[in-house]
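protein under study:
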Amino acid sequence: MSIKSKMTEKSLKEIEKITGTKLTLGKLIWAIRQSEEISQVNFSHKLKITRQHLCDIEHERKSISPKLAAKYAKILGFSEEQFIRLALQDLVDRAGLKVEVEITLKHKRKNTDSRIAA
């Protein structure tokens, strides 16, 4: 499986099998960089961050906001939803909460909002 192929839940689970640990956004970014055989310096330029910041992300010393995760996914050509989910999961895990994050895509609706005002 090429890391450049369409990233699905199944492919993320495969990456977890390969690494032997739970997938985090930092590990995924590291795996993408390794698969593309790009140095930290060149990859950090691509993401418009410093090499040290990239190193901190890859080694999970720094977390990434969901907004930045979406930006990085766009730059790298990967699923924004998966990057956002992993960013949110990292935040939940760092808080010590035993919750699994799932993403549901929001579809635009035309004046059919069925929520009831309180």
